[in-house]
């Protein structure tokens, strides 16, 4: 009986704090990229965390909506690709996983952003969904930068201690670009990266303005 109550209590906690849980998963993914060189099997851990993230966002989406129905398809494709890649890894499967993850991450960001305007059970959850979307935006741009450098080496000026284009370095670059900090250790060296970093800085600034404006408006 006690175990049943604990189980129901955990389900209730997750149901009422789902965006907080998803925010923790995104934060974990970002932190893991910082240990890419130190932790063995990090790619498998990342795949598991991303799978949890995608399932969690679909579960957090309002039922019987077109957005939830659309998200189910790439999520199903994601798990099929992960299974195939584990059985027989190939460069083609890696590319398909990257493209599908990009679609899913973008969809997750849109769903999280919609919570700023949708009815929620608590304003705290609205805040968590906003921060979730903001961090996810940084992840998406970081993955794009990482892939650009992998396909066209020299697209970015990288420090000497950054080797083989690790994702962690581009996650860091993405976050400081979006927050317009710009320390300067990593800089774009080609036209496409320059354009993308400019767009990210604008998008990040606009997101913060909308987020703050919406949050303040809800408090009035």
Automatic annotation (TrEMBL):
Domain Potassium channel, residue spans: 137-214
Top-level taxon of the source organism: Bacteria
Name listed for the protein in its UniProt record: Ion channel
InterPro entries: K_chnl_dom
Keyword set includes Glycosyltransferase: no
Record bears the keyword tRNA-binding: no
Keywords, comma-separated and alphabetical: Membrane, Transmembrane, Transmembrane helix
Residue ranges of the TM segments: 16-35, 42-60, 66-84, 96-117, 129-148, 198-217
């Amino acid at each position: 009986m006690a175990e049943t109550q604990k189980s129901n209590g955990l389900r209730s906690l997750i149901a009422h704090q789902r965006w907080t849980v998803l925010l923790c998963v995104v934060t974990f993914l970002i932190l893991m990229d910082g240990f890419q060189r130190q932790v063995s099997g990090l790619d498998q851990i990342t795949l598991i965390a991303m799978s949890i993230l995608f399932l969690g966002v679909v579960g957090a989406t309002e039922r019987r909506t077109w957005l939830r129905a659309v998200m189910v398809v790439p999520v199903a494709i994601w798990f099929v690709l992960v299974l195939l890649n584990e059985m027989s890894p190939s460069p083609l499967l890696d590319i398909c996983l990257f493209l599908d993850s990009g679609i899913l991450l973008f969809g997750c960001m849109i769903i999280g952003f919609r919570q700023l305007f949708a009815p929620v059970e608590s304003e705290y959850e609205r805040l968590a969904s906003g921060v979730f979307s903001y961090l996810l935006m940084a992840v998406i741009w970081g993955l794009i930068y990482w892939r650009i450098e992998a396909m066209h080496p020299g697209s970015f000026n990288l420090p000497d201690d950054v080797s083989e284009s690790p994702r962690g370095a581009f996650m860091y670059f993405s976050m400081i670009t979006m927050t317009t900090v710009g320390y300067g250790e990593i800089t774009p060296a080609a036209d496409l990266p320059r354009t993308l970093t400019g767009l990210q800085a604008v998008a990040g600034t606009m997101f913060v303005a909308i987020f703050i404006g919406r949050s303040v408006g809800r408090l009035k």
